[in-house]
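Key result, reporting period 2: structure in, sequence out.
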């Protein structure tokens, strides 16, 4: 009988671990914020409980909605699951790596966002339309920053695959291109906060109608549909955080379990950092967010000039 090569099953195992652990990041962020506020806070596994509860409920659909509203959460979650197949986790190869997969990765994230916006617009609610317009504006400014940041890494690694790009980042890379990598990480951190609707761009816990962005777009979703959206948000937090952690903590020991443990610890530290940011500052005014993203784009462009010289 032919034996399985551990190198072949590691990417699939990493994806399965990531699918299981992604909702944990939200719990870490909430517990960090609760610690700063002097509260006990939610259980760290609260999102798991919420997902289980929502999956066992029924869904309510308005007569004004069409198939677009029902398809939005399903296609959005499917897009994020597909994006995970080209993202390397824990220092291993992606499940389906190929040259140029960074473009597919970015557009799969864009597809998930597009379906969320279309599903919200399908309700016919002016309130949700307001949130859609804000989400589309900020995303349109964040996406070029993501592309430029990935281009910097691709240029340094001379590789157009996310697996090859992130594998080329090691302690030696920081010694040779430390300033450029620092600028890229800073720019990608702004994209990370924007795409995941975190402070200072958006407040996931807000209940003020005039300040809601992402939360207002999912107000009409219930039951399993809402569970798909919440789980998709956790996966998006995980995959975008993976890029940052793979650059900041480039550990490639050759031991799959050791590399993944280091990667997971880095993801937890990133979640704690997000909780610290959200506890130590308020959200920006709407007019300031585009300025912040333009500044992030300037940092990414400067990093590109540094690697091109």
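The corresponding designed sequence is given below.
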């Amino acid at each position: 009988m032919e034996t399985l090569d551990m190198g072949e099953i590691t990417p699939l195992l990493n994806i399965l671990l990531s699918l299981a652990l992604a909702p944990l990041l939200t719990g870490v962020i909430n517990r960090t914020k609760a610690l700063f506020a002097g509260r006990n806070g939610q259980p760290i596994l609260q999102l798991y409980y919420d997902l289980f509860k929502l999956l066992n409920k029924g869904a309510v659909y308005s007569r004004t909605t069409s198939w677009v509203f029902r398809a939005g959460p399903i296609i959005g979650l499917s897009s994020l699951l597909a994006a995970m197949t080209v993202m390397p986790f824990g220092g291993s190869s992606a499940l389906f790596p190929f040259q140029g997969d960074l473009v597919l990765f970015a557009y799969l994230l864009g597809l998930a966002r597009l379906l969320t916006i279309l599903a919200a617009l399908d309700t016919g609610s002016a309130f949700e339309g307001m949130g859609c317009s804000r989400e589309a504006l900020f995303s349109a400014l964040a996406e070029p920053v993501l592309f430029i940041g990935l281009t910097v890494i691709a240029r340094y690694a001379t590789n157009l695959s996310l697996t090859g790009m992130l594998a080329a980042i090691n302690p030696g890379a920081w010694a040779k291109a430390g300033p450029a990598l620092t600028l890229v990480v800073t720019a990608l951190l702004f994209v990370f906060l924007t795409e995941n609707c975190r402070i200072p761009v958006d407040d996931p816990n807000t209940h003020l109608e005039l300040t809601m962005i992402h939360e207002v777009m999912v107000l009409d979703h219930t039951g399993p549909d809402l569970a798909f959206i919440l789980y998709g948000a956790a996966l998006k937090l995980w995959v975008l955080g993976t890029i940052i952690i793979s650059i900041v903590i480039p550990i490639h020991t050759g031991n799959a379990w050791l590399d993944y443990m280091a990667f997971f610890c880095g993801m937890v530290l990133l979640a704690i950092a997000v909780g610290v940011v959200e506890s130590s500052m308020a959200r920006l005014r709407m007019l300031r967010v585009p300025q912040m993203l333009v500044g992030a784009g300037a940092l990414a462009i400067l990093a590109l000039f540094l690697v091109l010289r």
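The chain has one domain: 6-308. Confidence is low (pLDDT under 50) at residues 1-8. This case is discussed further under Risks and Mitigation.
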